[in-house]
Amino acid sequence: MKLIQPIPIGDAQLVSSSIPETDFGAWDVVATYAGGQHVVRGHRIWLASQGANIGKDPLTAGVSWWVDQGPTNRFGMFDGSVSTVSTADLSLTVVLAPGRIDSLALLNVDAAEVVVTQRVGSEITYQKTVSMIDNSAVIDWYSYFFEPIKILDYVLLTDIPVFGEATLEIVATKQAGTVSIGMCATGLQSAIGKTIKSPTASITDYSKKSTDDFGNAVLVQRGFSKRMATKVKIDNDDVDRVHALLASVRATPVVWIGSDSFSALAIYGFLKDFSIDLAYTNFSFCTLDVEGMI
Question: Within a domain: residue 103?
Answer without folding.
Answer: yes
